[in-house]
Amino acid sequence: MKNTLKIGSAFISATMLFGIAPTMAHAAPTSSQGAISTFATSHAKQLGTPTSAEECFSNGTCAQEFKTGIVTWRPSTGAKALTNSAEMQSFKQAGGPAQLGALESSSWKSSYCGQIVTTTSGKTRWLVVVDQATQPGSKIDLQSPEAKTWMAQRAKTRACFTANTAPVVKGSENINWTAAQFIPAQRALLSITDTTAYVTAADANGARVPGSAVVEVPWLKTNTAALNDWTGKSTWSEGSAIQALGLPTSNPVWNGTTAQQNFEHGTLTFSRDNTTVKTQLNTEGLKTLEESLNFTPKISGEYKTVNDRLTIKQGGTSVFVYDAQTGHATVMDQRVYNEYLKNPDRFGAPAGWRWAGADGHGSSQYLTTMFTDAAGRITTVWGADTASVVVDPAEGDIFTINNEPATVDPAAINWDYTDYSLIQNARIYLHEGDNVAYTIAAGSDYHAVAGSPVFSSRWLGYNLAQMKSDAWDSYSDTNQYKEWSQGELGLHSKVSAIGLPVAAAKTVVENGVTYEVQEYSGGTVKWAIPGAAAAANAGDAQITLNAVGQERVAAADAQRKAIYG
């Protein structure tokens, strides 16, 4: 005997069945205002425990599933139910409340189709067959020509309308987990059915963890980009917040057309049409996300929420940045982050990072950050000098965003952002506003030695600016800064043997020519400051070595002879 709840009249005439007009459509509600909950409480014995949260649809219907039934509601029908598991599955197979709207009553027996139920979606009315012995899951629009034809002929044919049952939707209880896809990145098994996707926990060998929960994750079925991120198949999976979510811990909870789902490391909000997918990570999720970037050295510090979009962790000269709006994270040079913070959409979505090699004038490696636009094209950005940023856009020429101060306070220079010379064991900062270089001694850790004197040099600045220009070819061009900062084959030459400045530069005029004269640890530099029409070799200075400089050259010559003969 069917366990069917009878509500209201058990007999509805043909005139009533086909003659009732659909209700007028109104703005979709966001809840049943407690009607479903009240109904479920009073019929708990027939319905069993809830298996989903209340969900409201754009057609104005709200519904909630239970162990042995489903309750629907809309303002025109009130709360109505099917209290038989098989009938509920047939109703869902036909389209469920999202397509068919709200039940107008419990199921009742038709002379032609067996057990049926009628629904209203606000735009039309449907008749749904829920009888397992006839054509369960078939449906017909009662306002359609097909329905009118059937109504006119059914007394003669004594038959139901033409069956149009949709394929049976397999539930999680029917999944063969030994045939499911193993996702190593999540220690999970993934089964994608005709209509949705299910996930359960797996061990390191891909076997299902005994007793692990089976959770529905519909967006893994409908959103390919999110699927690739979560499974680790995307080009930019590293740094994807979706991959950092881990395993789902609950089924989605719908509120109208938007759902929220809980995971080990945060929550995911997504829409039915996948136009909105947003992640919110907890601390463990942020740790997982940062670790996925494989950035070294590790960034110390604490996670800090900047605004409703950005979360960061700052350490040294690097910044971990998570953008909740794009769902991706990366690592940025502090100078790049400072510029990015002004407009997080300027360069595109964070997409990755890499260490770039020496740039041809004695610099150590520097951190670059990649961003992608909607077409997947890459823009690369890195820091320059003390506050500036260099941008290599997806289209167009490389350009510099100059954030350098108009005047230089040597005490305010962040030497970690400056060029490094191994042979001089020094840090060099170029102020591009006037092409003046500032030098300071560095220690064995490559950092500036605190308290060491800082000296400026227009000679070094002029040559370094030449090297940083677009016309410079780092492979074939040379000048005195390149030789000063690198020597010859890593050994001292006459130019590099001059060492670091030990006194402030002086300006002298001889025969109408203005010179910069400066004492260095290895001698004296005398450089003619070029005018507007400077010659190609205008950067060359007269170098006079003292005993220290001469000793450096002699030692280098002896080394060269020992190496090269």
TrEMBL record:
Pfam families: LGFP. It comes from the Bacteria. Residues 1-27 form the signal peptide. Keywords: Signal. This is Uncharacterized protein. It comes from Rothia amarae. The lineage of its organism: Bacteria, Bacillati, Actinomycetota, Actinomycetes, Micrococcales.
